[in-house]
Amino acid sequence: DTVEEGLFSEVELIVGNSGTGDLTYTIIDNRSWLDVNPDNGVVAPDEADTSVVTLDASALATGTYTGDITITCNDPDNSDIIIPATLVVVESAPACDYLPGDVNGDGLTIGSDITYAVGYFRGASFPPDSCWDETASDWLYVAGDVNGDCLFIGSDITYYVNYFRGVNTELRFCPRLPPYGPPVLGVPIKPEGEVIGRVPGDEIKADTPSANKK
């Protein structure tokens, strides 16, 4: 697995029993950055146990680390099962330089950002701020992801409109790509004369950004 410095990852390890008797097992790891919980148990026939394997990069420098997880059990045909484990530690991704909701990049979060976002979905200009999402292996127009689901799609327009109407009380952001500054909170006041239209989310589809403009 690949983990940023200072973080950890968890994966499931399933021990199943296809035999006719109880399966007694013990799980052993051989690295300090590996942990398996629970590490022993008894599995009835046609049942399975699930353990959580934690790969902890909190004390590791960047690089590739290898180890083994050994399952010892009372199965005469497979008494020892060795599972290799690899942990790749990468540098922490920097926070992105953007303001949640500032889709047009003018430093403000007002109704014109909704107009700009709608225009983008209809084929007009691309939002100026995009950041690389390592988890999704794709670029994200981060300022437009105002509902915080790590996507920029039509539902963000609906959420943004409801923000200005006082239904939603904050502009959110993708937790994987936090901004340098704090998000804008509270219910905004609509600028005098500004007309904000509602655009159904299911009528809008987004293209994918191709480069990080920041």
Q: Please report the total strand number as a whole number.
A: 10
- The percentage helix is 10-25%
Distance between the termini: 28 Å
Could you tell me the mean pLDDT? 83
Low-confidence stretches: 182-214
- Cα radius of gyration in angstroms: 24 Å
Topology order in helix (H) and strand (E) letters: EEEEEEEEHEEH
Please count the helical segments: 2
Strand order across the biggest sheet? 1-8-7-3-5
Overall SS class: mainly beta
Oligomer: single chain
Shape: elongated
Strand content: 25-35%
The major beta sheet can be summarized as:
5 strands, mixed
Task: Summarize this entry quickly.
This protein is 10% helix and 30% strand.
Task: Explain how this protein is built.
With 214 residues, this protein is mainly beta. It is built from 2 helices and 10 strands, in the order ββββββββαββα. The chain has a 5-stranded mixed β-sheet, with no helix packed on it. A 3-stranded antiparallel β-sheet has the order 2-6-4, with no helix packed on it. Helix 1 packs antiparallel against helix 2. The longest helix is centred in the middle third of the chain and has 11 residues. The C terminus is likely disordered.
List keywords for this structure.
five-stranded mixed beta sheet; disordered C terminus; mainly beta; 2 helices; 214 residues; three-stranded antiparallel beta sheet
Ordered list of secondary-structure elements with their pairings:
Elements: E1 2-4, E2 8-16, E3 23-29, E4 34-37, E5 40-43, E6 48-56, E7 63-73, E8 80-90, H1 111-121, E9 131-133, E10 138-140, H2 154-164
Parallel strand pairs: 1-8
Antiparallel strand pairs: 2-6, 3-5, 3-7, 4-6, 7-8, 9-10
Helix pairs in contact: 1-2
